[in-house]
Specification:
By secondary structure, the chain is α+β, with helices and mostly antiparallel strands. It is built from four helices and 13 strands. Strands 1, 2, 3, 4, 5, 6, 7, 8, 9, 10, 11, 12 and 13 form a 13-stranded antiparallel sheet that branches. A hairpin with a 4-residue loop joins strand 6 and strand 7. The relative contact order is 0.14.
């Protein structure tokens, strides 16, 4: 059923324009917006969410007091608790997360792992880039009843400014469609972490929807411009 809803929405884009009852024209980009907000945008926002915990961990494990103060100033209820082999991080009464380390800095190619609370199942990992400070590859893969998702997204930061680029594949568990999501390094997603804001300031995301049943595909672009999202 989900596949047919997506196919129907995509078909609207190819239909001819007509006036609505109030005399306005329909939003031909709405099907793309629905697909992005409900499916294709998932790896983008997951990456942003998970990256924050690795940035905090890297800063509080290996950063200086000025960098740590910059993060604390944005989250009044941030708690960072050292434990053997890592940290427990929570903010603004949200669930806590545990970050463990292999003992090496990210700039040494170190590996950080993220867990929800005290769970033993690893959510995602961050692998540092040797010789580059404040840069890591965020890797994630997961299967559930709605989709199979994996992504490799590079994150670089000079806190509070963060940029993300990389690729992701989202697959229907029934093998009926897949969605490719790509953030090119020339137009990365960038945002300034600040209170009350979760959106990206600038950046471009390319999306390709492939119907594996009838062999068709549709592609569109999502552009972030100072908080506004434009579909092309």
């Amino acid at each position: 059923m989900k596949r047919y809803i997506i196919v129907a929405l995509l078909a609207l884009v190819c239909s001819t324009s007509c006036l609505l009852d109030d005399g306005s024209e329909p939003d031909v980009n709405r099907p793309y917006k629905v697909i992005y907000e409900n499916k294709a945008g998932m790896p983008v926002y997951l990456a942003q969410t998970y990256a924050w915990y690795f940035i905090v961990a890297d800063t509080f494990l290996y950063g200086n007091e000025e960098e740590q103060a910059a993060i604390k100033s944005r989250y009044d209820e941030l708690v960072v608790e050292p434990i053997e082999g890592g940290l427990v991080i929570s903010k603004e009464k949200s669930d806590s997360y545990t970050v463990t380390t292999d003992g090496k800095k990210l700039s040494e190619g170190g590996l950080l792992s993220l867990y929800r609370g005290t769970a033993t199942k690893e959510l995602t990992t961050a692998t540092g880039v040797e010789g580059r400070a404040k840069t890591f590859c965020l890797q994630y893969d997961s299967d559930n009843v709605y989709n199979k998702l994996d992504f490799d997204i590079f994150v670089s930061y000079n806190y509070p400014v963060v940029s993300l680029y990389g690729s992701s594949l989202l697959q229907d568990p029934n093998g009926e469609y897949n969605i490719d999501v790509t953030i090119d390094s020339t137009t990365p997603l960038m945002y300034r972490d600040k209170k009350g804001s979760r959106g990206f300031d600038t950046g471009v995301v390319d999306v390709v929807y492939r119907d594996l049943v009838d062999g068709t595909s549709k592609s569109f672009t999502v552009e972030y411009t100072q908080g506004e999202i434009i579909y092309k």
